[in-house]
Design brief:
227 residues, alpha/beta, Spore Coat Polysaccharide Biosynthesis Protein SpsA, Chain A, globular
Length: 227
């Protein structure tokens, strides 16, 4: 599990504690915290049962890439420091052990709004992203379709999710585990901002994965909806 963070505070400690409660403290669940080098010494005094990765560049996607490069596990999961892993997340770990899917999607409890479905759909992801707190990726999937593009400010994960869900060659394919397994704070920047780089590349992505005519229909529908 990879947690990008700027500093160690009560929210980060709460997130780490929730991971340990849901997943245990054993070697099966590696917890990596990616943060500025100058903040690591202070964080070590506050947090146990985790490893630290010094970020090499600023930015959320740069930190996620640093965590991806440092992680040793077969599966990778990204979570914000103000999010909480719920006890039913243990069911996701069971699916990973028993079925070895290319990815696992689950529902997320979104702030005070309610449950945000994570049922994977190749067509839905073309129009709307999934909450990445509800996705566990295989290393194979991210090594093939990553790293996250740092020039994208808020939708590099959307770009990766499109490629992952449209890749039929990835092992056993995605699995869906229904029910909220994570509480997402709803305060992430990507939830309230759009990415101009992503939308410049969007027509190219559509033509590649769905063909020229279907691409035209999808892009037209977005324009009608005011996007």
């Amino acid at each position: 599990m990879i947690i990008p963070a700027i500093d160690a505070d009560v929210e980060l400690r709460r997130c780490v504690d929730s991971i340990h409660l849901a997943c245990g403290n054993g070697p099966e669940c590696e917890v990596l915290i990616v943060m500025p080098p100058a903040r690591i010494e202070h964080a070590r005094k506050l947090l146990q049962g985790v490893s630290f990765v010094a970020e090499r560049r600023r930015g959320i996607y740069a930190a996620m890439n640093d965590g991806l490069a440092a992680a040793r596990g077969r599966y990778l999961y990204f979570i914000g420091k103000d999010d909480i892993v719920l006890p039913p997340f243990a069911e996701v770990l069971k699916v990973l052990r028993e079925d070895a899917p290319s990815s696992v999607f689950c529902d997320v409890y979104w702030g005070s709004t309610g449950i945000f479905t994570g049922r994977p759909s190749r067509w839905r992801v073309l129009l709307k992203n999934f909450c990445h707190q509800g996705i566990v990726y295989s290393r194979e999937a991210l090594e093939k379709h990553g790293p996250y593009l740092r020039k994208m400010r808020v939708q590099a994960d959307h770009f990766v999710n499109i490629k992952v869900l449209w890749d039929r060659s990835l092992g056993a394919g995605p699995r869906y585990v229904p029910g909220a397994r994570v509480w997402y704070s709803g305060d992430g920047f990507s939830s309230v901002a759009r990415d101009p780089v992503f939308w410049r590349l969007y027509p190219v992505v559509m033509r590649r994965y769905v063909g020229a005519f279907a691409s035209w229909l999808l892009i037209a529908s977005r324009k009608v909806r005011g996007r």
